[in-house]
Structures are given as C-alpha cells and as structure tokens.
Amino acid sequence: DLELDLERCQQLSVTVLTDHQDLSNTELKTITNSTAPQQYRVRAKLRTYKPQKLHQSVKLHCSKCNSLQEVPYGDDFGFILHDSANTAPNPELHNTSWYESVTWTTQDQKPREIAIHFVKHDEMLQDPENTLLMIEGGTLKEIWKLTKRFKCVIPVRSTEDDLELLDLSAPFLLQGNVKYYGCKQCSTPKPIKSLSSIAAEQHPSWEPTEIAQVLGIELLQYVFIMKFTLVDETGALNAYLFDY
C-alpha cells in the first residue's frame, strides 16, 4: 500500500529513494544548480507528498496538447445522460445497413424512450463479447449493465441526419469497467457512421484507439502523478512521478 509506505518513509530519519549503487550520493543543492537531464543518487528525507489520497493521483492526460484533467465523477456522467434523454430517438435513424436497432419505453414515473443499436459485421450480429453497441436514453445503471455483457458501449443521441456522441465531458466509450474520454480541445468529432468502416473490416477488434481515431477523438490516457518534496542539509527538491 503506497500510502502506508509513504508514511513509513516519513517516519524514517533517512530514506534511500533511488538505487544507483554505482553512483555516489549527491547533495540536493548540487542537483538544483545542475542542468537537466542528469542521473543522481540521493539520500534525503521525505518532507511531504501530494496528493494525500492515492485515488487523487489519477489524472487524464492528452499527449497532443499535453494538458492534464481531473477524472470526472460518475455523477457528472449521470447528469449528461439525463439531459440527453430529453431528446427522443429518431426512428429514421434505426436499422441501417450496418447496425440493427431495438427500442422500448420504460415504465418509470416519467417514461423514457431507449434505443440500442447493435453494430453488425457481414450483415450479421456478432457474439456479445465481440459486439459494439450504441445506446440512446439510457441511465448510468443501465449502461453499466450493458458493459458487463457486451464488449463496447457508446452513448449517443439523435440528430436529424445521424447519431452523434454526447458532450465530451462524458466518456465517449465504455469497455468493461473502463471509461474512455476524449480531449475537448484536440478532438474534432465525426459522424457516428464513421464506425461503419471498422465494422467492414475482416476481423473488427473494436479497440479504443481505433474507435477514437475513426470518430475524430483525441484519446485521453489515464496517468498516475505524485509530487514528493525531499530535503537534506543543503536544501529541498521537488520530485515528480508521472507514469501511464
């Protein structure tokens, strides 16, 4: 457990933070006055670390514009889905050459129209574990149920001419228990019918990177970031951990 390890580090008087046994120890003052990149071995105390809670270390990173974003809370996704449910599915967009549609009305106090579009391959529906589907009007709970059975789920809404992705504040794709997000600044969303090019492949894999590419989405990657403040007799140094 990293948090416990960090607490133990703070309790120790001196902590070896790197393992370059062939290098002699370097004072922090020397490192701060040096030009990067260099490789050093240090002996230092851990004064502080951020964030204090481990889950806060996970961010979303765009490799194109190099921006970092907070991972949205589930409630945000729920609100976006609720708003999109106000737009009824357009029946003219159902049962095309590359997907098959199923619709029904819920028995809620305020009934909702739901449409699920199952993408076909060679004019046939695939096994659930290989199927990509698009859903209109679904709740967060309903979408998570679908992700347990089908390979990929894309939340969409109807326009006059085509299905479209929701606001990119929401995940554009869900696969298993992973939500995939796109960069608002770098993405140029394309019509959903762009997915038909993957469905036409000999063996559609429905990989998130390929889906993002054909939909004009710059895929955000989950990264792990922490900041450590190290001290010795000569000064202080901020050390950053950044990893995919």
UniProtKB/TrEMBL annotation:
GO annotation, cellular component aspect: nuclear telomere cap complex
Organism: Myiagra hebetior
Protection of telomeres protein 1 C-terminal insertion domain boundaries: 75-218
GO molecular function list: G-rich strand telomeric DNA binding; telomerase inhibitor activity
InterPro entries the record matches: POT1, POT1_C_insert
Gene Ontology biological-process entries: regulation of telomere maintenance via telomerase; telomere capping
Transmembrane stretches, start-end: none
Protein name, per record: POTE1 protein
Gene: Pot1
Pfam families, per database record: POT1_C_insert (PF21375)
